[in-house]
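re the bet — no i am not wrong, look at it urself. input seq straight from the record:
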Amino acid sequence: MDNIPKHIAVIPDGNRRYAKKYNLSVYEAYKIGSDKAVEFLNWCIEFGIKVATIFIISYDNFLKRPKEDVDPVLELLKEKLKMIREDKRIIENKVKVKIIGRTNLLPDDVQKEIKLVEDFTKNNSNYYLNLAVIYGSRQEIIDGIKKLFEDFKKGIIDINNLDESLFMKYLYFGDEIPYPEPDLIIRTSGEHRISNYLLYQAAYSELYFIDKYWPEITKEDFINAIEWYKKRERRFGK
């Protein structure tokens, strides 16, 4: 397909409302949502989209939501990370997996699984899957400034050489993935906001909103988003 996005980021919103709609437990809804994330990755690979970034849990949600809402997300994250290391599709398609966010706040067992999956896929370079966990873009920018300042104090960088592309390397993606700026950001559930997600990287991203809860989206919805994107005229400020 011509003119498809190289990098799609998604805000998979509406899992808890889906649970209420269908009288499910929070865990059951998030389980369906986590399975949908696997489908989403498969769609990206099928269409040749090189980079997919999925918002798993925000920094604010991790700190402010009740434990009974957060624990199912972390449990399913650990389960899916284990599955990735056993999934032949990850190996066959050479998918590199990276977890971005303040992952030091995660339980030790989840941090262990993150290291295992990142080590397992570190040499892959056909496709890239990024999971944003305990992620907030304002927090990312602050963390990036701290790292940059440390390098400045060590004489590693000259502050006069600082520009947008250099600062990008101090954010969570670093220089490990191609196309760190998403071409297309998809949000489900009918909400129309960016929710502290990839604020620096999304300066010129196209925003597409789907009026369905995340577990409800279909491949047809995904294709509609791609077709909509293909018709956009991206001027990048010109």
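see?? The CA atoms of residues 122 and 129 lie 11 Å apart. told u. also The chain has a mean pLDDT of 96. so pay up
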